[in-house]
Structure formats: C-alpha cells, structure tokens
Amino acid sequence: MKIVSVIGARPQFVKAATISRVIGTRADIREVILHTGQHYDENMSKLFFEELNIPEPDYNLGVGSGSHAVQTGKMLEGIETILLREKPDWTLLFGDTNSTVAGALAATKLHIPVAHVEAGLRSFNRIMPEEINRVVTDRISDLLFAPTETAMTNLRNEGLADVTRFTGDVMYDSVLYYRGIVEQDPATYAMRDLPEEFLLATIHRAENTDHPQQIENILKAIRGLHYPVLLPIHPRTKKIISRFSIPENLHLIEPVGYLMMLSLILKARKVLTDSGGLQKEAYFLGTPCVTLRTETEWVETVHDGWNTITATDSEKIILAVQLPLPKVPQTKAFGNGKAAEIIVGLFT
Ligand code: UD1
User: Where in the sequence is the domain holding 281, given as residue range(s)?
Assistant: First the structure.
C-alpha cells in the first residue's frame, strides 16, 4: 500500500514524525512524504526533520508564504502533480493548516481516498482560517481520526459518524516519546541561563497578530507580571512586535526546536499561548496554561482546571497567572499514547 503524507507547517511535522515511525515498522506500507514548503525557515522546518528523525521529504513544493488564496492555490497545483505521478492508495493529512485543506481538495478531486489526523476539532469561530480548513477537510475526507470524545461528538453532529474512528491524540504519543528523550539527556535540550522561575509564551495566531490592540493588551499584561517571560518568536510576530515598546521582563528568543520546547514547558511555571498544540503539550506535561484566545478546541484541558481562557484581556491574563496551581489530576481524554499505532492499523 502506498500513502502520500502531506505536511507543511511546524505542528504537522510533530504529528507526522510519530505516524512515520509506526509506518516504518510496516513492510507492507510505503510512505511518500510531500512537504508543501509552507514553513521554510531553518528553525521552522529543517530543525524539526533532523531532531524528530522524519525521513527526508520525497518532494518539497517550496510554496512559501503568501495570502491564503495564493498559498493554497500554489499548493493545490503542486500536490495534484505529485498525486498524479505517485497514484497512492491514500492521502494522509494532519491538523488544520492551508497545507491540510490543499491536500484534501487536490486528492478528493482525483478520487484518491483521504484520511485526516486530528479530525473533528472545532472552535465554532469562522474568523480563524484554521476553522475553515478543518470544516472543509473533514467534510470531504474518507476517514476521520478523532483525537478526543469531543471531536467524535462534533463529527457525529455534522453527520460524519460513519467515516469517523476514535484514535486518541498523536500529539500525546509524541509528548510521551520525546519527553523520554529529553529526560534521558536533559543538558542537551536545556536552554542555558534560564531564570529560576519564568513564564513561557508563544503568540502567532492571525486573530492576535493582525490586530495591534490585541498585541498591545498582551504586552500590557506581561508588563504587569512579576515573572520573566520567555517568548520564542514566530517570524510573523517578529515582524509586528518591533512596532511596540517591549516590556523589560519580556525576553524574545528565536523559535526553538520541539525537544527544547518540551524542556522549556517542563521548567516553566505557566505557559501563555494562542497555539492549539502548546495548550495540550502544557497539559500533558503538567504545566498550567493561560490561553490568549476567546475559546479553545481542547475543552478537556479547561474542564480539568489546567487551562484558563483569558483572550487578550490584560487583567484576566494577570489574574490567571496568579491562580494557584491546579490539584485535579488530568483526564485520559487524549487516548492511551498509542494513537499512531491505532491510526496506521486502520489502513487496510
Ligand atoms: C500556520 C497555520 C497555523 C499553525 C501555524 C504553526 C495556516 C492557515 N495556519 O500559521 O494553523 O498554528 O502554521 O506555526 O495554515 N514565515 C516565515 N518563515 C517560515 C514560515 C512563516 O518567515 O518558515 C512568516 C511569513 O511572514 C508568513 C507568516 O510567517 O507570511 C505566516 O506563515 P504561514 O505559514 O502563512 O502561517 P502561520 O502563521 O505559520
């Protein structure tokens, strides 16, 4: 059996690494890796392939950045060409980026079956490009891998139960596996000269970066916090943040690889983020999270008291950081750490 995996952006490399490792144990499946080139900086792409031992992509479309239409359009054209050449039995897609939706459209129009990892996530907020990508991809895919019961319910409500399977979350598998690697050799993955206590922040979502007032609010909150805040900065945020006055306790650093990120999450007092993936990674590693968005798709993390949704309200952010650390144990909502095995086993 031949599977073409379409990836392009940072969070997809993490999910694909875990699935590729399992596919590698199956002599009957050949995986062809198609990188759209959505992320292309060394530390947004190459570093992840090296660190996570992802096989070198068979194709890299080099699409790069652009408006949604330009980026997705270039991807559609490139993916179609490769799919026509490779004639796979399945196209495998991950998450909710423009690379995901481009893969879904290109493959389904060629009548190539499509499977979607991390299906059924919904914020019910159509302002987010990711929400559009999720809804479209799930609607036209042939096999949907739901990471949580909430995702199962969302897909059932959309009439997609027949093609949906509960698998658990591959990002939970990833954290379990790579945490082991980080803890075996902590010095290699530790950032030097870290303060004793610090907060770890990431900001990159268009809902925040495209609106100066949101950035201003987040910076105001940071100024009011009594901890140093470490911010590995996404290239789009880097371009924007230089227009603002940077609080003294905010330390901007270059984006870091996945393993150093896990090490930082483990050491941080709390995480402040607008990323979906980081909310879960914090939860899996037992670090409380403050989410700088109006809602989350990962509602389980909120129910357990490990995640507080503040949007970009400065006062709420400060209060959430001051909240005592939660005592409630985490639920097993994200599966048993074997999601990748379950997913690969579903390809027949
Ligand atoms: C994309 C995903 C988002 C995911 C995120 C992870 C979409 C719609 N969004 O957002 O869901 O959470 O990846 O990071 O697909 N840039 C560089 N170098 C790079 C990549 C990006 O400089 O290697 C800059 C460019 O200025 C670009 C901007 O970042 O215009 C945005 O990049 P893009 O890939 O369009 O979306 P992300 O914001 O990374």
Answer: 184-332
Which residue's CA lies nearest to atom 32 of ligand 1?
65
Cα dihedral 169→174→177→183 (10° resolution): -120
What is d(CA 220, CA 292) in angstroms, rounded to the nearest whole number?
13
* Rounded average pLDDT over 204-213: 95
Identify the CATH number of the domain in which residue 57 sits: 3.40.50.2000
Domain count, the chain: 2
- Whether residue 139 is found in the same domain as residue 210: no
Tell me the backbone φ, ψ of residue 254, rounded to 5 degrees. Answer: -65, 155
Q: Is 251 an active-site residue?
A: no
pLDDT score of 330 more than 80: no
Picking from 4, 13, 138, the residue whose alpha carbon sits closest to that of residue 80 is 4
Taking alpha carbons only, the member of 107, 134, 102 closest to residue 4 is: 107
In a domain, 318, yes or no: yes
**Domain-embedded: residue 348:** no
Mutate to test the pocket of ligand 1, among 171, 204, 238, 254 (most ligand atoms within 8 A of CB): 204
User: Does residue 346 form part of some domain?
Assistant: no
Residue 263, ligand 1, Cβ within 6 A: no
Which amino acid, residue 143? Answer: L
- 172 within some domain: no
39 Cα to the center of ligand 1, angstroms: 6
pLDDT digits (tens, 9 = 90+) for 21-47: 999 999 999 999 999 999 999 999 999
Given a cut of 80, whether residue 70 has pLDDT beyond it is: yes
Report whether pLDDT(242) > 80: yes
- Name 316's bridge partners: none
Cβ of 66 closer than 6 Å to ligand 1, yes or no, is no
Residue 213 confidence (pLDDT): 97
Alpha helix (H) residue ranges in 66-205? 68-86, 98-109, 129-140, 149-157, 170-184, 186-189
